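input
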Amino acid sequence: MRSPTRRDLDLRTLDTWIAPVLGASVREASELSGGTFAAVWRATLTDGREIVVKTAAAPEARLLRYEAGLLAAESAYYQRVRNLAPVPEVLHLADDWLAVTLLPGRPLTELDNTDGVREQLGATIARVHELTGSRFGYAGARASGADWPAAFAAIVDDLLADARDWSVRLPSGIAETVERHRACLATVTRPALLHWDLWDGNVLARDGVLTGLVDGERYLYGDPLLDLVSPALFRRIEDEPDNPFLRGYAAATGLVLDDAARTRLALYRMHLYTLMVTECPSRGEPRDGERAAYLTGLLESELHLLGQTM
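output
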């Protein structure tokens, strides 16, 4: 099922957008698969350039609170990290579309024997984490705070409000769990720049080399450990001492996953699963379907783990 947030697009519309600002027409184009939120097209221009065009959500689509202004956020992320990570060059940002250069390589979802690339990714993200923001949380008018506990609580509170708006059923105790672990969250005192969405579809490689990091629109500032969740999606990276991403990240940072770090990782998985359950209806998924049930089970497992952690 196509997500209601994905805008319908065609070659003529692409050409109407691109030709006036990039000085060349679209010779051919095709929609890329992968993510569910935005429509993403690969286009070849008449001057030989190959680009990627991403659209804003469909105008009629209802969004979650943190999804406001994602195109501008993606452009900002690429420009902020371009000297530290292999990200696209921004060619043009409009109100409802973004054009960037096409990066070489294929997503890790399509590749085998990727341990070396994942280790490179860990080292690359460690460099990106050295960048510091002026506040914690999201940019713009979205959830943020003067410190990490306040920002993280605001982020989770927004998701709980979204769940109420969409009539999504969540396990009880999520906000209370965040509050109970406030002191643990308060050990994070520097707002590091986080990508947040490092699943395999957003990481490109070719010939064993990391060549691309895309979809940076969900970036925020906070605890670096937040970026250790999505590279081990639906798993607990702290239970994988030989995880290649963790190996690359720890080699660059000296990270040790003590009890406090494990608690924070559980909180961040709780946040991710809360988001993924909440977004189901906005992506055209049934509120009580198999995906929602699976994610709710993962969420309940993290809540149980956090209930045992004081």
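quick obs: The first strand starts at residue 26 and ends at 31.
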